Amino acid sequence: MASSLKNPNVFIGPRQGAALNAFLKKNKYSSIFIICDSNTLKHCLSPLVLSCISLKEAEVIELEPGEDSKHIEVLGSIWQTLTDFGADKKSLIINLGGGVVSDIGGFAASTYKRGIDYINIPTTLLAIADASVGGKTGINFSGIKNLLGTITQPKAVFVDALFLKTLPTRHIINGFAEIIKIALVQDKKFFTAISHLKINSNYNNAAVIKKAISLKTGVIKKDPNEKSLRKILNFGHTIGHAVESLFLEKEYSLLHGEAIAIGMIVESYLCLTLKRITKTEFNLIHKSLAVNFKFYKIPAEDLARFVEYLSQDKKNINKTYLFALLKGIGKCDPQVKVSRAQTGKALAYYNSKIANAS
Description:
Elements: E1 9-12, H1 17-27, E2 31-37, H2 38-43, H3 45-51, E3 59-63, H4 72-84, E4 91-97, H5 99-111, E5 117-122, H6 125-131, E6 136-141, E7 144-151, E8 156-159, H7 169-186, H8 188-194, H9 206-222, H10 237-248, H11 256-273, H12 279-290, H13 303-311, E9 321-326, E10 332-338, H14 340-354
Parallel strand pairs: 1-8, 2-3, 2-4, 4-5, 5-8
Antiparallel strand pairs: 6-7, 9-10
Helix pairs in contact: 4-5, 5-6, 6-7, 6-9, 7-8, 7-9, 7-11, 10-11, 10-13, 11-12, 11-14
């Protein structure tokens, strides 16, 4: 099934080999490079190549799994490999993996020789619901999440939920955070339908996945370069990215969705204090997130560092915090000024009243 988004085409369904093969034959690429991590190399690469004869001669670039690969040195090694194998303007990068692979692979493609085509084949629920669609690419820099990057649309996205069978439960739950987010900012009825779901390793609800992708692509079609409306997709991410960056320094780091779940509950409390949602709505959001996510405390000794990360958020302008905040469940304003004092009170409430894990 192709979405209505003019670029990229999003194909959703099982056994995408035939569609991918037709796409590659139509575009006649001079060379193909598959970027994957060691997990997708082990579990996903062989089935993909077996299903698509056009990939028989593709070069494979393997990354280590995890956020540490979103580093400028790793990006440089990808550029070097492309150069060593003579990649040209008619070459293609295929990102086979989760959000890390699509983020850095898309960035490599968007900058190599001032841009070559790339496609995403997401293998995690997080990548399916978020990273693979929309064209945001990037790496972390100076300890700050996604500080460097581009908005460059993939040529196509091929979604096969069968890849989810390769994932542990924690990584399935990780992706569900982004599905909750798109429901909260776009569709109250959808949120109500999914708010009670307990996610396990067998989760593979094609209807929910298609709905989440449809909602996101609808936003991106109206604002591909994130000038206004698309910023609603940042709900939960101002606090969430700071949480994620902070915990990357810890022995136990959080996955992206786990951090965004914390971001959504803190930012929902901000919405409550600013009278943008009711107490009943806040409780519904809290209850929904608590079904699948732990709310880790932000240690008092780390608050100064946390504020540093907040101050580096790329959405800020003139040192002013700009949040995407709900206006009731199912609606969101893309840019709302929030003071440091208001943010501090929300964090204090979260640590004292909501956080249940350390």
